[in-house]
Write a structure and sequence with these properties.
Subcellular location: Cell projection, Ruffle membrane; Cytoplasm; Membrane
Strand content: 35-45%
GO molecular function: thiolester hydrolase activity
Radius of gyration: 15 Å
Family: Belongs to the THEM4/THEM5 thioesterase family.
Pfam families: 4HBT (PF03061)
Number of domains: 1
Strand order of the largest sheet: 1-2-4-5-6-3
Number of strands: 6
Order of helices and strands: EEHEEEE
Distance between the termini: 29 Å
Largest sheet: 6 strands, antiparallel
Helix content: 10-25%
InterPro entries: HotDog_dom_sf (IPR029069), THEM4/THEM5_acyl-CoA_thioest (IPR052365), Thioestr_dom (IPR006683)
CATH topology: Thiol Ester Dehydrase, Chain A
Structural class: alpha+beta
CATH superfamily: Hotdog Thioesterase
Length: about 150
């Protein structure tokens, strides 16, 4: 399944978390699932904090990229953009808050569910919930800002 990240212009596709052109990155894909957004990720053994559990910084990273991807989806929807090659809106993080509720097991898929809490002309707030094995382990709030197409060029 394609995620919003597959539609980012090439100059926005280098992100370590979600950039399709970053050979060392996570290659996260964020997509709509009804009224929520979803990102799935399988941590590698080298994402270990202590044996059996995922490093918290990596969890913050995937929540961050899920948030900006969710915001990009929301802006595309708000602006009636039909996604096609390299036309997706792109956002950067203005604020990231992460709360670790319980250790996240490393031996399986992680799913991040996003809810668009607020959106205006340039800014979106996304509430994220990270699940492992069906259990809520981490929550986050991401404020993402829409950037112009030539940002970073």
């Amino acid at each position: 399944m394609k995620g919003i990240q597959d539609y980012y212009p090439n100059h926005f596709a280098q992100c370590y978390g979600c950039g399709r052109l970053n050979e060392h990155g996570h290659h996260l894909k964020t997509y709509w699932d009804g009224e929520h957004t979803i990102t799935k990720f399988i941590p590698k053994e080298y994402h270990t904090a202590i044996p059996g559990f995922v490093y918290g910084g990596m969890l913050a990273s995937v929540i961050d990229c899920h948030g900006t991807g969710s915001a990009a989806l929301a802006f595309a929807k708000q602006q009636n953009i039909e996604l096609c090659e390299h036309n997706a809106p792109r956002c950067v993080t203005a604020s990231l808050q992460v709360k670790y509720l319980k250790p996240t097991p490393i031996d399986g898929e992680i799913e991040i569910k996003g809810t668009i809490a607020e959106i205006n002309e340039r800014k979106a707030t996304v509430v994220a919930e990270l699940y492992a094995g069906g259990k809520l382990c981490v929550t986050g709030e991401i404020v993402a800002v829409l950037v112009p197409d030539n940002f970073g060029e």
